[in-house]
Design a protein that fits this description.
- By secondary structure, the chain is an alpha+beta fold.
- It has a single domain, classed as Aconitase, domain 4, CATH 3.20.19.
- It contains 4 helices and 5 strands.
- The protein has a 5-stranded mixed beta sheet.
- It is elongated.
């Protein structure tokens, strides 16, 4: 969905835009230091190593710029529920998962 976008890394987010990203399964991340934004160019290759485990364990997240061999710290303001939503691919998948669990419990 959304051309394979997994995350958006920005200086900041409008509240509704951030919520929409989470609902669509796209990780909203911000730079700890806003000036780090300038270390990246359009065609740079970036990596978010071990992102799923780092989100769940509330560890610091490192963004690697493979092209320039640099690393910067990024952060998020996600709630535990939002992390669960992102880990299953978005709000629709999350709700479907809840419905499936409820149906199994009813049987």
């Amino acid at each position: 969905m959304y051309l394979g976008i997994k995350a958006v890394i920005a200086k900041s987010f409008a509240r509704i835009h951030r919520a929409n990203l989470v609902n669509f399964g796209i990780l909203p991340l911000t730079f700890e230091n806003e000036n780090d934004y300038n270390l990246f160019d359009l065609r740079d290759t970036i990596e978010l190593p071990d992102i799923r485990n780092r989100l769940k364990s509330k560890s610091r997240i490192t963004l690697k710029n493979v092209t320039k061999n640099k690393e910067v710290k990024i952060t998020h303001t996600l709630t535990p529920r939002e992390i669960d939503i992102l880990c299953v691919g978005g709000l629709l998948n999350y709700q479907a998962q809840i419905c499936n669990v409820s149906k199994k419990e009813d049987v």
